[in-house]
User: Which sequence fits this backbone?
């Protein structure tokens, strides 16, 4: 931007309900920022729209660093207040997380009817709107209370200031007393939510360990929000996971079975989408959900290939995967929404990401090739075994068909002979029947 700051006015949306709030968006342009200001504010507008607010104006300012008192300059803060007033705005949304002091000072600058929130509060609001499972709601409540706690002082500052005129009573005002009560209440609430969440997370952990013991190959979908992960799991598994063209349409992880072309059954888990500037409190609160990624055998990194910010979104996902310790898990990049691309864009992406799989979850293009890629990854983690399983152990043969890749099968006098690729977690179950170990289990081994 050539100017110190800029203002863009948005026209009213047609056909929208009148109950939608009107928002002014505010951002700052800093040197060396990994995301362009236009991209970041464009995403903030989509977030506001998802939360139920129409953007009526967008303004920004170039700064070396945020102002410690008001985030933007004091003069710019007065201008934002006037901008909100002239557009009859209900709220002002800042593109970065505000400190409690910054938020308190900005609220005093705005009209009393105007709410001041930041990107983190906006994302929390969307999460609260879309969380449906018990675990999802608990995770959102935990993040909300952790966000609220350091901001309680500012909420009661007006009461404290009214009683700070000096004299008796000025050192222990009503506001400070109420502040301590509220702090204690929020601390208790955080502790209670964490305790309840630990119980729910334990159930999820037991389920994950059960899947691990079963030998089922586990695939997790990860990616930027709205990259099409839910649409992809629906296409792969023939399921009906909720899929909307909105940011954070789904928050709760969903696991579905997928039968590979050779007949092997694996699981595919859809997880919460990532976003630039994803608040640390959310990463921590959603840790049990994100553990579905860290416990996977293969990660499908789903990318919206039609987005102009695809490269930046890929980096944002890599950053979060690093935060949760999942960067070492084998992964396949899936360039989704190929049906929206022209030939030149497809060629450019193939040169940029030569190992990626190009697909369209909407049309089915490239899905068969992706299934083959998943099957190869599953096979690479297996051990080649040749076994003879006694006829009375028919259940083990059925398990082999469901969870292993059968290469050859024949029936012999001593049982069913299988040559197959076996997941490492199941190797010991088939080891007693491996060719070369004699017929049947050895002494001391369980039949």
Assistant:
């Amino acid at each position: 931007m050539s100017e110190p700051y800029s203002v863009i006015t948005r026209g009213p949306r047609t056909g929208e309900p009148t109950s939608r709030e009107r928002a002014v968006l505010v951002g700052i342009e800093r040197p060396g920022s990994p995301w362009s200001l236009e991209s970041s504010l464009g995403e903030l507008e989509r977030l506001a729209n998802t939360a139920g607010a129409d953007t009526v104006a967008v303004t920004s300012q170039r700064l070396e660093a945020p102002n410690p008192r008001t985030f933007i300059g004091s003069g710019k803060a007065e201008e934002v207040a006037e901008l909100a007033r002239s557009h009859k705005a209900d709220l002002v949304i800042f593109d970065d997380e505000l400190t409690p002091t910054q938020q308190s000072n900005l609220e005093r600058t705005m009209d009393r009817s105007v709410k001041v929130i930041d990107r983190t509060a906006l994302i929390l609001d969307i999460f609260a709107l879309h969380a449906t499972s018990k675990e999802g709601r608990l995770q959102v409540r935990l993040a909300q209370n952790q966000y609220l706690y350091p901001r309680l002082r500012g909420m009661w500052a007006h009461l404290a200031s009214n009683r700070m005129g000096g004299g008796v009573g000025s050192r222990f005002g009503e506001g400070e007393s109420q502040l301590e009560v509220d702090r204690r209440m929020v601390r208790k609430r955080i502790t209670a939510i964490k305790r309840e969440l630990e119980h729910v997370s334990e159930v999820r952990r037991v389920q994950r360990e059960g899947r691990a013991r079963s030998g089922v190959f586990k695939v997790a979908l990860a990616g930027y929000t709205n990259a099409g992960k839910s649409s992809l799991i629906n296409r792969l598994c023939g399921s009906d996971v909720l899929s909307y063209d909105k940011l954070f349409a789904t928050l709760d992880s969903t696991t579905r079975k997928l039968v590979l072309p050779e007949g092997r059954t694996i699981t595919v888990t859809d997880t919460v989408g990532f976003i630039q500037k994803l608040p640390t409190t959310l990463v921590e609160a959603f840790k049990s959900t994100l553990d579905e990624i860290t416990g996977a055998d293969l990660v499908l990194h789903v990318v919206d290939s039609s987005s102009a910010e695809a490269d930046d979104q890929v980096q944002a996902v890599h950053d979060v995967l690093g935060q949760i310790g999942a960067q070492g898990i084998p992964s396949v990049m899936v360039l989704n929404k190929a049906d929206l691309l022209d030939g030149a864009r497809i060629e450019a992406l193939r040169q940029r990401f030569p190992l990626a799989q190009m697909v369209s979850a909407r049309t089915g293009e490239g899905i068969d090739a992706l299934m083959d890629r998943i099957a190869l990854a599953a096979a690479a983690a297996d051990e080649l075994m040749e076994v003879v399983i006694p006829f009375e152990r028919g259940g083990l043969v059925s398990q082999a068909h469901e969870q292993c890749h059968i290469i050859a099968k024949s029936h012999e006098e001593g049982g069913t002979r299988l040559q197959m690729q076996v997941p490492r977690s199941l190797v010991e179950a088939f080891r007693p029947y491996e060719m070369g170990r004699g017929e049947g289990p050895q002494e001391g081994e369980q039949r």
About this structure: DSSP finds 16 helices and 14 strands in the chain. Residues 1-5, 12-17, 156-175, 439-447 have pLDDT under 50 and may be disordered.
